[in-house]
Amino acid sequence: MCTKVNGIRYRLTIPNYLAVRTMGLVPGGMNTGRIPGLDLVADAPVALPGDDWVRLRPMLGGICGSDMSLLTGKSSPALSPFTSFPAVLGHEILAEVSEVGSDVRDIAPGDRVVVDPYISCEMRGLDPCRSCRKGLRCTCTETAEGQLAPGMLIGFCRDLPGGWSQEMIAHRGQVYQVPPGVGDIAAVLVEPLSIGLHAVLKQPPEPGSKVVVIGGGMIGMAVLAALRLLELDCHVTVIARYPFQAAMATRLGADAVRDRAGAAAVELAGAKSYRPIKGKRVFTGGFDWVFDCVGSRVSVDESLRVAGPEGHITLVGCAGEVSRLDLSFVWARELRYTGSYGYGTEHGVDGAPHTFDMTLEFLEQRPDYPLTDLVTHRFPLAGWREAMRVNLGRGQTGAMKTVFEIGPDGGAA
Questions:
Q1: Which residues pair with 92 in a beta bridge?
Q2: Tens of pLDDT along the chain (413 residues)?
Q3: In the chain, helix, strand, coil percent, each to 5?
Q4: Is 200 exposed, middle or buried (0-12, 13-18, 19+ CB in 10 A)?
Q5: How far is CA 221 from the centre of its chain?
Q6: Do residues 265 and 271 touch, judged by C-beta distance below 8 A?
Q7: Within a domain: 326
């Protein structure tokens, strides 16, 4: 075992938070990709906490929108009690097993695995809470308790380094073997694709529904992919901001792609538009199912406006504090509003598989479906500033999913 391992670590402090918020207010202030509190460091390896843990060598680590929200100071403070820093980031992980505890039987060194990053009661040495008993670690109620530092998932917990690193550890229940027929680039997409699949399985559109996916980023594409891979009978419109997102949505099977949700509701869902005495246009009629995959003030407002009577809205994007939000449509249209956060045991599917198992099966059975096109940029760990710059300016860089490629030297070269 090496004496030091490389990782991209974030140190959250009040000065760093204020600095990044200030930089965000200055045009071009973050164009360099330098983010206060973020750096490539060398740390001592973490010991295995028990005989049912494994040591992993990350091969690819994805950059998630929630990582960027944290690093740019846009995350809501409401969940701060359930994180702990400094922490090595990264929760979209393809890794190779390098060591297993004595109680681990069905995983061996050399196996390729993907990691469910959510931290369970079992990992904390606690009796399972209601969510953990149901196989939904993503909504565990004990994320600030037990023998580990606070953290809802790996990468946001100082005791469990994430996948932007040369080495990490995970509990046996977190790792899922990658079938030989699934390539590395496809495998690193399992985590974000599972978010989209779980969101669709929570509220599958009824046959003949008109569906709109608001957002052309990775999560919007994951929801679109889930709708198509599940072969649901529905017309799907994607609202994409950039031409490269629109092109990707078309490749993944969107029936229509537009850049404005309101206009799409009128054109494609039969809505009628009206001008109120004050404020934005309102609509009667609209989409049967809405998946908000952005989570901004604008997207939440659009979701409420373009949903038709008794429409279903699933909030998949990580919305935080939303100011001046008009909720009139929730009661006036009798809307059904649902949040979707992670993944886990899918009780509505025969056999109650884990979402990761379903995603891996889709990847193995549908190698023709162009999911690997979603990975547009790759960087070594040492190129983290350029990776941040590319993600912060995705409209100019065309970034969809950016990943770190982690070699034997930890990406330091």
A1: 62
A2: 457 899 999 998 888 878 877 776 555 666 667 899 999 999 999 999 999 999 999 999 999 999 999 998 888 889 999 999 999 999 999 999 999 999 999 999 999 999 999 999 999 999 999 999 999 999 999 999 999 999 999 999 999 999 999 999 999 999 999 999 999 999 999 999 999 999 999 989 999 999 999 999 999 999 999 999 999 999 999 999 999 999 999 999 999 999 999 999 999 999 999 999 999 999 999 999 999 999 999 999 999 999 999 999 999 988 777 878 899 999 999 999 999 999 999 999 999 999 999 999 999 999 999 999 999 999 999 999 999 999 999 999 999 999 999 976 555 43
A3: 30, 25, 45
A4: buried
A5: 11
A6: yes
A7: yes
Instruction: Read off the CATH number of the domain in which 172 is found.
Output: 3.90.180.10
CB 192 within 8 A of CB 127: no
State whether 60 and 10 are in the same domain.
Answer: yes
Segments of 44-142 assigned E as strands: 53-62, 87-88, 92-100, 112-115
Domain final residue, candidates 339, 357, 377: 339
How many C-beta neighbours within 10 Å does residue 163 have?
Answer: 32
In-domain check, residue 42: yes
CATH code, domain carrying 279: 3.40.50.720
Q: How many domains does the chain have?
A: 2
Q: Which ranges of 14-91 would DSSP assign to H, the alpha helix?
A: 14-25, 65-71
Expressed as residue numbers, the domain containing 61 is 5-117+153-181+367-405
In terms of pTM, does the model score above 0.70?
A: yes
| Whole-number Å distance between alpha carbons of 211 and 30 | 36
Shared domain for 380 and 250, answered yes or no, is no
- Within a domain: residue 355? no
My answer on whether 213 and 174 are in the same domain is: no
Helix (H) / strand (E) element for 304: namely helix 297-306
Which of 270, 277, 275, 278 has the alpha carbon at shortest distance from 308? 270
Q: Is residue 147 part of a domain?
A: no
Same domain for 209 and 162: no
- How far apart CA 52 and CA 94 sit, in angstroms, is 19
